[in-house]
Amino acid sequence: MNLADILIHWKAILEILILWFVIYQVMLFFEGTRAIQVVKGIALILVAFFIFQKLGLERLDWLFRNFFATSIIALLIIFHPELRKGLAKLGQKNLFVSSMDEEELDKMLKEITKAAQGLRNDKIGALIAIEKNDSLGGYVESGVMIDANISAELIQAIFTPNNPLHDGAIIIQRGRATSAGAILPLVQRFDIDRIFGTRHRAALGLSEETDAVIIVISEERQDISLVYQGRLYNNLSHEDLFLKAKEIIRIRK
What we know:
Elements: H1 3-29, H2 36-55, H3 58-78, H4 80-89, H5 96-99, H6 102-121, E1 126-130, H7 137-140, E2 144-149, H8 152-158, E3 169-173, E4 176-182, H9 198-209, E5 213-217, E6 224-228, E7 231-233, H10 238-249
Parallel strand pairs: 1-3
Antiparallel strand pairs: 1-5, 2-4, 3-4, 5-6, 6-7
């Protein structure tokens, strides 16, 4: 085998590795959405298309080339919401998990759960979003910058009725309350129980676009909920809230 043949083989291996890496990243991009099964199908088509080209199977190559080109347009239309959510995640990574030690995390969560219990007892609604890996910087800008230490008293004061910021969300980044009155995206799903109001829908909406840990206190039902990646854990005690929030925040993505 001469040098030219070796280079051709290495080029083919490199192309396969690059293709596999791109497919893997695209699957991560759509993880947790209903488009993931379609993405897997597209990945198989791409692999088959690549193999047909390398083997010189011209008729199959032509068939897949035309089928793939027309299918992409249809998929872009059908899965537009999933594409929007995926694009929202690009470049949104930070080092939140590693920036807080165990003691700091416990202190923060104790203040949040203490506030949640007090707000529930007082029949006051609240929405608190804790940044994890995906940046909440865009949502911070929709509220009022406060950059304050987290305390139960601060959280309860912000959500007190007639406070100008009580209708939005508090956003917590790197262990500090950075914004209050922030506007969160409402969930686009139609299968949400009618008992859940705007705060729960905003929490679910944010959880579909980021991996934030969102805490909701309902003023109507006086219960505490936690939302994470589209899942809603409701009717939590303040002890359950502390344990569940800590467990999720410590999960490394």
